[in-house]
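dumping this here so i dont lose it again. seq + smiles for nicotinamide-adenine-dinucleotide
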Amino acid sequence: MGDKLKGKNAIVTGAGRGIGKAVAIALAQEGANVVVCDLGGGVDGSGIDKTPADEVVAECQKLGVKAVAQYGDVSSFTDAEAMVRACVDNFGSIEIVANIAGIDKPKMIWNMTEEEWDQVVAVHLKGTFNTTRHAAPLMREQKYGRIINTVSEAFIGGPSHLNYAAAKGGIATLTYGAARELGKAGVTVNAICPRAWTRMTADDKVIEGIKKRIEAGLMPADQLDRMMNELADPSYFAAFVAYLASPDAADINGQVFFVSGTELGHWTQPTIDTKVTRDWKTEGPWTFDEIVKLVPSKLLVDYVNPAPAQTEKK
Ligand SMILES: NC(=O)c1ccc[n+]([C@@H]2O[C@H](COP(=O)([O-])OP(=O)(O)OC[C@H]3O[C@@H](n4cnc5c(N)ncnc54)[C@H](O)[C@@H]3O)[C@@H](O)[C@H]2O)c1
């Protein structure tokens, strides 16, 4: 047991299983009191079960901290408010929000239903907004807060679940922007981009899906082998979230960190890597003919199309 988070109170969403559970325990190991928020659903968001949250509450309490369960749905604005309220009512204040709850409903874009899109975006992106929205005024007032969000490597466009990938991209943007809005008040907002052995990655159906994507050329041939070798239990990197949640990370804000059992990394924000310029006042507008020449010769030198057409050129 450490004491880096002694006197701090946290809500952790998705804390019943996987990464959220490991993070809740890591925060408790450093002395934080924890609201364990989890509705206990399946990977695809179906069903509810109070057992996972209750079990993590018991594990946290064994570590000598206070812990209570919340079984609400992060995609509901009012349930998220109840999570924040539970922290204040039970422990007196809220210093830490770890947004980790997530689901996955993979489909190619041409097969995805409106409901599959809406549900996944609601849990990840709206869920992250919801808890942040309710905690932010309290954190601003007390001039202290730590918000840690969860993105995924899919956020750069991971195929076959663009509902999930786009929501994660939205969370990255939310992280960058909320950090700028809240930083002055002593509230930091960062994100982890994890790679861990959980039911979301190690399930038989997921592994079958990866095999199919490799066969279809959508993922590198060694993707599955790499995954099997690299994926460790999330408890191996959960201390990184405890660090971000601590006073030690006061000056770390608006950053996205890759975290796994084997590697820690830092994601840069997208930047413009190449430019061509013109003086529009003297040279006039870009013309189609110029653009046709400029794009391959100046803007996209060494560029590789991520999915070249396999059909005849029209
Ligand atoms: N496992 C990985 O390698 C990996 C990689 C990238 C990103 N992530 C992200 O990490 C987070 C945790 O994933 P995991 O692998 O631990 O998955 P998991 O399925 O083991 O755990 C997710 C937890 O979130 C809970 N949950 C789901 N929807 C909820 C809702 N609406 N309200 C409250 N709780 C809800 C579930 O009940 C479950 O306990 C997710 O956001 C996921 O997208 C995981």
